[in-house]
Amino acid sequence: MRFDQRHLLGIEPLRADEITTLLDLADQYVTLSRRREKHSSLLSGLTQINMFFENSTRTQSSFELAGKRLGADVMNMSMQASSIKKGETLIDTALTLNAMHPDLLVVRHPQSGAVDLLAQKVHCAVINAGDGRHEHPTQALLDALTIRRAKGRLHRLNIAICGDIAHSRVARSNLLLLHKMENRIRLVGPATLMPAGIDAFGVEVYDNMEEGLRDVDVVMMLRLQKERMDGGFIPSEREYYHRWGLDAEKLAHAKPDAIVMHPGPMNRGVEIDGTIADDINRSVIQEQVEMGVAVRMAAMDLLARNLRARPTELSA
Ligand code: ASP
User: Fold this and answer.
1) How many whole angstroms from its chain centre is CA 29?
2) Residues paired with residue 3 on neighbouring β-strands, in sequence order
3) Which end of the chain is more exposed for a tag (fewer CB within 10 A), N or C?
4) Which residues are annotated as catalytic?
5) Where does L-aspartate bind (predicted)?
6) Residue range 217-238, pLDDT digits in tens
7) Cα separation of 104 and 313, whole Å?
8) Tell me, what's the pLDDT at 215?
9) What confidence score (pLDDT) does residue 37 get?
């Protein structure tokens, strides 16, 4: 089992075998999490700090639960109300953190690259819980685990990522991961929501859902990231739903056993029909949430092993 990373800042630096190692371990944590007694003492004695500079419900609680199930001391720092608002720089934050001696730091930040910067300044292992439009590695890993368990494999699948690709760190991390694992990826959505330079990714691009979903194994829907738009990207939400919202009619073009995914939070009636989202025969959205805890346990387990292999740095 090899996982050579000191931090988990993105999917980009990971090798395919490291992704497989992490997912294999996460499978074991799914089993543990389904037991009545879910506790392990693997991270016992270690301190995990969750720093969310941007609102989050599911990701933050998922990381908190993951750390607690592994026996870490978990602290949530609400950065909305903290000194950041008073103008503290990221560097000052790093110095404050170092003085608290955390072992694992989970960071979400609205700016792309901010988590990498922090990782260069702190002494502990850092996990990126989403930075701007850049990456959201644990989301892509939990999506990968969900796909692997539903389809029995994570290669040579036809996967459509649909909607607001341009503003989505989820799309970016998934694209990188699914590409490394040798899948065929299609991006489906309006041209205004496709990132520049997309041709370099080796994907097929469609602006029509019926064609884009034809015979795919996986339909991955994305939230319309209104907070990152300054107007003019879509005609109206009604029109958007009509053309790119996933409903039964459009889904009928995918394979009969295609699964439907969404990272949440969902805008029902904008990018996805509520009945499809709730259809337990097609939608794996609840499984994604379950896999999220297991993948985060696996990520923290692997990073903690690497931390323990560096005792001198820890005590520095
Ligand atoms: N929860 C995901 C993220 O933080 C997806 C989303 O917000 O649309 O990026």
Assistant:
1) 17
2) none
3) C
4) 58-59, 86, 108, 136
5) 86, 169, 223
6) 999 999 998 887 777 778 789 9
7) 14
8) 98
9) 94
The better pLDDT of the pair 299, 97 is held by 299
Amino acid (1-letter code) at residue 195: P
- Residue 189 carries which DSSP code? S
Q: What is the sign, positive or negative, of the torsion defined by CA atoms of 149, 151, 154, 160?
A: negative
Q: What's the CATH number for 7-135+290-309?
A: 3.40.50.1370
Q: How far apart are CA 232 and CA 243, in angstroms?
A: 16
Q: Domain boundaries in the chain?
A: 7-135+290-309, 137-284
Same fold for the domain at 7-135+290-309 and the one at 137-284?
Answer: yes
**CATH 3.30.450.20 for the 137-284 domain, yes or no:** no
Q: Who lines ligand 1 at CB under 6 A?
A: 130, 136, 169-170, 223, 225, 263-264
Q: How far, in Å, from the CA of 170 to the mean position of ligand 1?
A: 7
Please tell me the predicted confidence (pLDDT) of residue 199. Answer: 77
